[in-house]
Amino acid sequence: MRTQWSLVRLSWRMRLTVLIGVLILHAVNAHAAEPILIRFSHVTSEATPKGHGALLFKKLAEERLAGKVRVEIYPRALKFNDVQALLALLFGDIELAAPSFAKFRSFSRQIQVFDLPFLFSDVDAVNRFQRGEAGVKLLDSMLSHGIKGLAYWNNGMRVMSANRPLRTPQDFKRLRFRIEPSAVMQAQYRALGAATVPMPFKQVREGLKMGLVTGQENAWSNIHSKGFHDFQTYFTEARHSFLGYMLVTNADFWTNLPAEIRGELDKIIQEVTVEVNKNAREKAKSDRQRVIDSKKAEVITLTDPELAEWRTLLTPIWKQFEAQIGIEIIEQAIQANQPR
Question: What's 119's DSSP letter?
Fold first, then answer.
């Protein structure tokens, strides 16, 4: 009798063990079937080239990798500003970010090449440089810090603004210019005689409204989308500097993705990059015209003699950062100004 009872008890134990095993297996399979979450944080509005690119990435990724990938977008610095986003990327709180080049200085001094005044003649020159040897290598210049560059996203040439016409370097005296956390920009405005105030993009509109800063520089899409022309009267097109972004991810996250998913995401990113850069060209023209049509601001185009004065004052800054960036990189940037 005891033996029979022992067999019954053993049978129930075996059944319970099998049941627990089945439940665990179901839980593991259910977890494995969950789509990979990709969280993308950026600071601009959805109406900008970067905002448009983020939404297009989400659309294509969730269409082509349906059930395998889910994308969440956090625009307008709703989750992090660009500096915070890079730390969040490293800690695994997000998977994608697209900060402007100035934000990468702590991780790669070489990327400062994009901020040097009057180094690139136009957006086409920037694109040629980015496609060249130096530009491709810069995407991987932060791997030792755990950050991988995936693509370059454009937003056009920068425009300077203030409530006085900015035609000569003397016009910058006693102005307080909002800048990104960029040593190059700080040197630039020091040479022009203006004070600098590092300020996150999200705070610039309020800073202009309250008079905390009396000048700023940005691409036309950012100027129009944030309404900077509500508080700034004169916008000077010196074509002195380029505003672009690097789309980046956590290097370990990217490497550990299943090969087929990583490959498809890479194709999507290249496709989105083409659209972002095309949109940036269009927005530079259309948003510039919208600012003009608002009748709130005047656009100033510098004459050749005026530009020559600016260049004479600002191009020596290249030498200040030559050791940090590398003479070879600067030389390749100069060569990119010549169409091939």
Answer: S
Residue 29 has pLDDT above 60, yes or no: no
Where residue 339 falls among pLDDT bands split at 50, 70, 90? confident
Task: Return the residue matching tokens 């977008």.
Answer: 73
Across 52-65, average pLDDT = 98
E strand spans, the chain: 36-41, 69-74, 96-97, 147-157, 159-162, 176-179, 195-198, 215-218, 234-237, 242-250, 298-301
More confidently predicted of 13 and 62: 62
Sign of the torsion formed by the C-alpha atoms of 275, 280, 286 and 290: positive
| Three-state SS at 42 | coil
Q: Are strands 36-41 and 96-97 parallel, antiparallel or unpaired?
A: parallel
Dist CA 282 CA 219 (whole Å): 12
Class of the domain covering 35-335: alpha beta
